[in-house]
Amino acid sequence: MTFLVTGASGYIGSHTCLALIEQGHDVVAIDNLCNNDSSALERVASYTGVSFKFFDADARNGYELMSILEDCPVDALIHLAGLTSVPDSFVQPVEYYENNVGGALTLLRVMALNGIKRIVFSSSAAVYGAQPIQPVTEETALLPAQSPYARTKAIVEGLLADAAYADPDMRVVVLRYFNPVGAHTTASIGQKPLSKSGNLMSAILEVASGAESFVPVFGDDYPTADGTAERDYLHICDLAEGHVAALSALNTPGVHTYNLGAGRPVSVFEMIRAFSDATGMSVPYRVCERRAGDLPQSWADVSKSKAALGWTASRSLAQMCVDAWTFYRTVGVEGV
Q1: 3-state secondary structure of 295
Q2: Residue 260: is its pLDDT beyond 80?
Q3: Number of domains in the chain
Q4: Rounded CA gap, 266 and 285, in Å?
């Protein structure tokens, strides 16, 4: 199959493009390069030995998308483009709605005009809200979103459900990501944003490299085992492989939702210790006030993904840490 991948040059996008190509699919990549440069896709092409078309284009620009699809017909879309920082979404909510919701609306219109009935959407575990019981399943009722970012993801899920209801031939896969970390084991691609990402692994890498003096730990008074927030971390390559596994669901009309996570909680303190143990690097930290929008706990029940897709996250926490550190030292992560 041929896939149009939006947000293709990003952390998840570049790994997904690589996984698609390795499984024999064709890729048409677009990205407006607001979060990343195009170097990751250049390394994907070099590593795989496969050339593919890349367009510096914005998913919100319907005219650009129509022109691209006229030149490069595709069978399906994988929509990864969007703004992703929870803290930034409180500061720039309008930009988040414009990018994340506006981009999805444009894509749905372009899909309709081109007769494209298949789409994979990059959603987030953030749509579950502050659930009192963990882990969460795909059937867990969504609670109010805790950030503008999370609200945009929930809104787009609703748009896709409504579109599929109106068109019985629509095939929609919604992937609710938990927390991807790490890098490709060859250190050819990894996380290299143009500005600070605000995630825990990036903060750890900065401190390990000497770029920063400590990791800020946002709260140690959560109702968890050690007081720090718990998240479900999975290797980025496991996540990319989850996209390929989920393509089988595009054969059946309707909306198909899957959690992509490792299915186990890891606290902030545990991640810091795991990184130090795996790499031998010292990682000083400092406890700070909680951040708005941060949840105490969030991890996945992945039994549906395993049963329906035959997919599970297999790489260890230690490998996530080692691969992230290897990429950081090999390629350099300016501005993380």
Answers
A1: coil
A2: yes
A3: 1
A4: 17
